[in-house]
Predict the 3D structure of the following.
Amino acid sequence: MDIDLTDPELEKAATKIQATFKGYKVRKEVKEKTPETEEQPKEIQRSDSIDIDLNDPDVEKAATRIQATFRGYKTRREVKKD
């Protein structure tokens, strides 16, 4: 499967996933730097989870394209070793 890395749809999907991950990473870093003084409400405790709708067709499509790209890269790398 050839994937055009200049495809705007692929770029949009990757950007969406990257933005979600970056938000998760920042929230995690802030949580680690903030001293725990008392038990936090469950709403705040769950702030480190990724806020992404896994049923969103765009998210599913983005994940599938990224996985396919990685699998292709991995296969080409393995073939190159042989």
